[in-house]
Amino acid sequence: MRHPDHGMFSPILVNARTNDIVPVARFFDVEQFVRDIVEIADSGRKPAIIKWMVLLSLVRNFDFANAPPDFGIAELRGLFGDCVYRVAGSGPNWSEQAYLYNGVWKLVMVSPMAFQDLANYDLATISHSTTPMATQEGEINFCAYNGGRWRRIVEHLHQTARLAEWNRAHGRHPIYAKGKEVELGAHGAPRTDLVQIERQQTTV
């Protein structure tokens, strides 16, 4: 499937108990389902009829033989309803309703993104970006926030302390290597015997 910002993206299921990963496309025709949704939306039927047509499309595009043993139409319907509510739901208790789904299988969207910097900055791509970043100044799309140096501006405006000052006052966060915590020394100062960096001065 295609996304306006990322190009191709793939939906996958992750089992919260066993960490098993199953591509949705293995047992569900996602592309045909999207085409069905377009036709259903364009039909102009009543909301109740549209809901039944969407449910029929879910059943039509579901491959029982290749689906996980504990994932059926009921689980697919619950997961789909949860996703729709998070996108289009509203109301004062939205956050509570949006996280009512407690199924074992979780939906995860995997998508690549061509990161923009000053060398490949593309205003046309930025104008079509639909991935927002929330800042104190409001929303700004991902590419402009990072590639356009807005991130540096926002961080500078709202920084409370430089990294070195923060580490001296609060200590550094734990760092792990091969499952073991790396000893940072007194007050979180990095150990100088771990890595030695030699500087060479070149005279032109």
Task: Report on this structure.
With 204 residues, the chain is α+β, with helices and mostly antiparallel strands. The chain folds into two domains: 2-110, no CATH class; 123-158, no CATH class. The protein has helices spanning 30-43, 47-60, 73-88, 94-98, 123-127, 142-147, 150-158, 163-170, and strands at 2-3, 7-8, 10-15, 21-23, 105-110, 132-135, 138-141, 176-177, 180-181. The chain has a three-stranded antiparallel sheet with strand order 4-3-5, with no helix packed on it. A two-stranded antiparallel sheet has the order 1-2. A two-stranded antiparallel ribbon has the order 6-7. Helix 1 (30-43) packs antiparallel against helix 2. The longest helix has 16 residues, at 73-88. The radius of gyration is 24 Å and the shape is extended. 5% of the residues are buried. Mean pLDDT is 77; it is low at 2-7 and 190-202.
Number of strands: 9
Low-pLDDT runs of 5+ residues are: 2-7, 190-202
What is the averaged pLDDT score?
A: 77
Strands of the widest sheet, in order across it, are 4-3-5
Order of helices and strands: EEEEHHHHEHEEHHHEE
The value of Rg in angstroms is: 24 Å
What is the molecular shape? extended
Helical proportion, percent range = 25-40%
Tally of individual domains: 2
Beta content comes to 15-25%
- Assembly status: single chain
Tell me the structural class.
alpha+beta
Q: What is the rounded distance between the termini?
A: 54 Å
Tally of individual helices: 8
The main β sheet shows up as: 3 strands, antiparallel
